[in-house]
Amino acid sequence: MDFDMLGLKPRLIAALDEMGIKDPTPIQKQAIPPALEGRDVMGLAQTGTGKTAAFGLPLIQHLLEDSQRPAPRTARALILAPTRELVNQIAESLDGYIKGSHLKVARVVGGVGINPQIKRMERGVDLLVATPGRLIDLLDRGAVNLGESHFLVLDEADQMLDMGFIHALRQIAPKLPKERQTLLFSATMPKDMEALAATYLDRPVRVQVSTSGQTADKIEQSIHFIAKAEKPGLLIDLLRAHPDEAALVFARTKHGSDRLAKQLTSAGVEAVAIHGNRSQGQRTRALEAFTDGTAPVLVATDVAARGLDIPVVKHVYNYELPNVPETYVHRIGRTARAGREGAAITLCAPDEMAELKDIERVIKSQIPVVSGRRWTLAQEEAKPKQQRGGGGRRGGGQGRGAPKVANAGANPGRRRGARRSA
Asked: What is the pLDDT of residues 114-147, one digit of tens each?
């Protein structure tokens, strides 16, 4: 199926062709036709499957078919996303799709000066891409009027729920017209999502190209069971085994991300950190250093990394396991983008076994073990609290007869007999 068979206009197909986009992805094939018909759509698909085009192209076609221009301080279409990086990536894609047309795109995010954004909105825009918090700031100042926004997109809606943006959404939605088209896209479908869809979508068409918790086929997953104090040394060994390949390392906290990036750099592995406490300029410089290879390792928190689309990422390291199991799917989805292959390596300490069990329940499989033995909750609970996750020679996860961690570093994504986890 080609894009013209989906009902897109020749000028949009020409823009896609110029961007090197020839064939629609599964989510685009399913979502674009009902969106062009004006139906509300709830789309579920893995990260990296082309969701931006799935909602962006129908929006643009609707706006091109209606020749009206935006009134001052209004936006004809509103796209909400949870992070600055995702907003920027969506806006950049939209800029490519509308090239040569009269349509205008604006982005509104925190971490930068608000006055230029207020100025940008004075003449009105066709497509406004925003993070919820900064949009509310502009609404409170009277700098934005959503009364003409007849199209609403909620991208990465599950992450907006996780980050507490549901309260912001409740403030924003009543300011849009009741008669509107709403498109909701997500990589996972937690229970709260059904309630969200019932509240903001009208008889939506549900399109799904992956089951909730399904990981990309070309991601080779593996896990090391290791004591918490031993994690930095193992991570350094694993990174040194692939010096020329971009790696994304996930830590739980902002402070932890900074500390780990410094540890890696001190060990001769150039790394930069990105998290919510960094200014937009700092985040941009860190991403530039990562993408140009100056710092081949990016240490990130889940919030900061959500929406990153960096095709060069070959390895994703779960240095610390996430508290929300669906987040694991998002994390490892940062590799194996656009049909490429990638590896996801997890480092699990004794006190993280509960999180691991939740993750494996969500992905419906056990992650293949490279080194150590699976910790048990009984073993962890039997330890004195001050020892849990503590030092030792690779911890109780190594055990007699288990493969040595030092030898595993040469090939972290594979072992003899390990199966690929889908």
From this structure: 999 999 999 999 999 999 999 999 999 999 999 9
Tell me how far apart the alpha carbons of residues 230 and 105 are, in angstroms, rounded to a whole number: 48
In the block, which residue shows the tokens 């750099």?
265
User: Cα 75–81–87 angle (5° rounding)?
Assistant: 75
Of the candidates 268, 340, 280, the one whose C-alpha atom is nearest the C-alpha of residue 310 is 340
Are 7 and 88 spatial neighbours (Cβ–Cβ below 8 Å)? no
Domains in the chain (CATH in brackets) are 3-208 (3.40.50.300), 219-408 (3.40.50.300)
Write out the DSSP string of 93-159: HHHHHTTTSS--EEEE-SSS-SHHHHHHHTT-EEEEEE-HHHHHHHHHTT--B-TT--EEEETTHHH
Euclidean distance between CA atoms 417 and 73, whole angstroms: 60
Q: Where are the beta strands (DSSP E) in 191-296?
A: 205-208, 219-225, 246-250, 271-274
Q: Dump pLDDT digits (tens) for 84-93.
A: 888 998 999 9
Contact 135, 108 (CB under 8 A): yes
Q: Is 320 in contact with 256 (CB distance < 8 Å)?
A: yes
